[in-house]
Amino acid sequence: MTVSTSTAPLTATVDLSAIAHNVGVITECAGTSVIAVVKANGYGHGAVPVARAALRAGAAELGTAHLAEALALRAAGIDAHITSWLHAPGADFDAAITADIDIAISSPRQLAAVVAAARRTGTTATVTAKVDTGLGRSGIALDEWPQTAHDLAQAQAEGAVRLRAMMCHLACGDEPDNPLNTEQAQRLDAAADDLRRLGVVPELTHIANSPAALTRPDLARDLVRPGLAVYGCSPIPEQGDFGLIPAMTLTAEVALIKRIPAGQGVSYGHRWIAPRDTVVAVLPAGYADGVPRLLSGRFDAVVGDRRFPGVGRICMDQLVIDLGPDGGGVREGDRAVLFGPTPAGRPRVPTAADWAAAIGTIDYEIVSGVRGRAVRRYVGDGADEAEGTAS
Ligand SMILES: *Cc1c(COP(=O)(O)O)cnc(C)c1O
């Protein structure tokens, strides 16, 4: 997905003021500052513009999964603290250390590779101990913790690493009352105590993802580590929107309008047959652009103040909406909103969460999946800079 200042046929407009607003909401709820998670190209919103907007709004630090994502932020001139936590064997820790990336380690093997890189580069590596306190995914496994703690103490004593932070990731953060949340925090505290006994004192602890940052201030510790909420999606839809504003609006230009007679099938397989003479519009948005094919027949698009149902199969490049017998006042070149926030005083626009609910997934997958021919555009505070530099 590229960036253009003009409005492309398929456009993901990202409101950087919404990003800033959301950082403020999270900071207030959590009562601590924010590590804005900008992995996966800022959940599809563009990592560099989002990072800048979040930092301007008071986010203290940034987080990414891959080191390459962190290095790309550095290459764009961002000098904030960045922690990166997903590394495969052969990860370029030399580059990470040279770029002053905080490397979160998930095993004694990763620590050994970081120590070797620190010796090669002659630079003390800043590291975070990412402990698997119950997620069962990445993070230092329980049975490898004693070894890792021992190795950490030794590496710190010889100046190869500086342990800056302890982190863990919640398995059930979106169930605020799940006892596992508290247990995971307790296990992380116990791991920190182990390190203190070995003479290593972590400076910071962070645990909370978006749902926990908004609902469990008791787990906020020194920093919270939200992704989804930064982008304005609710991490617990049953509990409302928490005052967050979705940052992304996906719009498509009406490419073609045509009359079709009653009985005419629409799109592959003729899964929708016009029940009456009607007018349909073709939009240049398809599954190659991140509009899930499973959404066929299960979404509405908004043009002007009216909602029109999607009809027939969503194709690779295009989809069709039914404008009704009178054509709904829609003209070729009008813009259809596929999802986004609802502007004040206007009819409700579908959200990424609506799409997710319709097909049994989560909005994380919808917004981070916008791709292909979709072009990102930036509006709001900082948009001028973003339009010039984003990739
Ligand atoms: C993705 C991720 C986050 C952010 O999670 P959200 O649910 O989007 O807030 C935080 N920490 C880690 C380790 C992650 O992988």
Bound molecules: pyridoxal-5'-phosphate
The CATH superfamily of the largest domain bears the name Alanine racemase
Taken as a percent bin, the fraction of beta residues is: 15-25%
Total beta strands: 19
Task: Tell me the span between the first and last alpha carbons.
Answer: 8 Å
If classified by CATH, what would the architecture of the largest domain be?
Alpha-Beta Barrel
Give me the number of helical elements: 12
Average pLDDT score: 96
Strand-pairing-aware structural class: alpha/beta
| Count of individual domains | 2
CATH topology of the largest domain: TIM Barrel
The major beta sheet can be summarized as:
9 strands, mixed
Low-confidence segments, given as residue ranges, are none
CATH C-level class of the largest domain is Alpha Beta
Helix content: 25-40%
**Rg:** 24 Å
Describe this structure in words.
The protein is of the alpha/beta class and 391 residues long. The protein has two domains: 16-238, Alpha-Beta Barrel (TIM Barrel); 248-350, Lyase, Ornithine Decarboxylase, Chain A, domain 1 (Beta Barrel), CATH 2.40.37. 30% of the residues lie in helices and 23% in strands. The chain has helices spanning 16-30, 39-43, 47-56, 67-75, 93-98, 108-121, 145-157, 179-197, 210-215, 352-359, 363-368, 383-389, and strands at 10-15, 33-37, 61-64, 81-84, 102-105, 125-130, 161-167, 204-206, 223-224, 248-253, 256-260, 265-266, 272-273, 278-283, 300-303, 306-311, 319-324, 335-339, 375-379. A nine-stranded mixed β-sheet has the order 11-14-17-16-15-18-10-1-19. The radius of gyration is 24 Å and the shape is elongated. The N and C termini lie close together (8 Å). The mean pLDDT is 96. The structure holds pyridoxal-5'-phosphate. Pyridoxal-5'-phosphate is lined by residues 37, 39, 65, 85, 169, 209-210, 225-228, 235. Pyridoxal-5'-phosphate (PLP) is lined by residues 37, 39, 65, 85, 169, 209-210, 225-228, 235.
